[in-house]
Amino acid sequence: MKASVLEVRDVQKIYGNRGESQSHALKGVSLTIQEGEFVGIMGPSGSGKTTLLNVISTLDRPTDGFIQIAGTDITQMKQNQLADFRSQKLGFIFQDFNLLENLTVYENIALPLSLQGVSSSEIAPKVHKVAQTLGIQEILQKYPVQISGGQKQRAAAARALVHDPAILLADEPTGSLDSKNAKSLLETMTDLNENHGVSIMMVTHDAFSASYCRRILFIQDGKLYTEIHRTQDRQQFFKQILDVLAELGASHDVR
Ligand SMILES: Nc1ncnc2c1ncn2[C@@H]1O[C@H](COP(=O)(O)OP(=O)(O)OP(=O)(O)O)[C@@H](O)[C@H]1O
Description:
Layout: E1 4-15, E2 23-34, E3 38-42, H1 49-56, E4 64-69, E5 72-73, H2 79-89, E6 90-93, H3 105-115, H4 120-133, H5 149-161, E7 167-171, H6 179-196, E8 200-203, H7 207-210, E9 215-220, E10 223-229, H8 234-248
Parallel strand pairs: 3-8, 3-9, 6-7, 7-8
Antiparallel strand pairs: 1-2, 1-4, 4-5, 9-10
Helix pairs in contact: 3-4, 3-5, 4-5, 5-6
The chain binds adenosine-5'-triphosphate.
């Protein structure tokens, strides 16, 4: 049986101190992601998706509950340990790429390893390997301003994966892409998941993007509402997602 890469148990998040106006953003969320899964997180605006992603990605702490990533309980870690853990075990892709404009694509991809003090001779083969997987070998010497949005997102994905993280966390990764580049990135993520064993958790509003996942967890009002698994083809799954979103009364994009 596969091991779990992520275990979230009874996680609560309350913003604001006692006596102030408080916001109960997560009200006891539990979920497990197994190694090699591609899981989507969806839900209406304000349901707690970003909060969930932030506590899993160690950027914020839960008020209560337990989160284990690759066998390590992150809720017990000190701040400096969390920074190391994040840079070694987690990979992130965001909507707006977050590439450094004054570094080449190669240097951007190498950055997480350079920051960990890995030698340049060890870094080079890793950058070339991940660039090959993402089909961006030709643009390694270019600067972000010289490449397209789709290429920027591939470079960002390469940077997220170069240190071989336990899980790739994606927050609206197709949000800044046109539909052709979005489709191409989603196909790449599917390839990473199916053929390279990358475990992925993706937060998205977009039913088309979500239809590439194998399983989707829906959150509403800080709690898990339901989950669905892809058993048939992607078009069927897309319809199933729209049905749940309609049930939730959520607004959604249809590409
Ligand atoms: N820093 C904060 N301080 C106080 N309340 C917050 C804070 N961040 C989020 N909230 C509240 O917590 C709840 C969940 O917000 P969250 O951003 O996690 O939702 P979301 O599902 O990501 O929404 P969206 O899809 O609009 O990004 C909301 O009621 C929000 O107003």
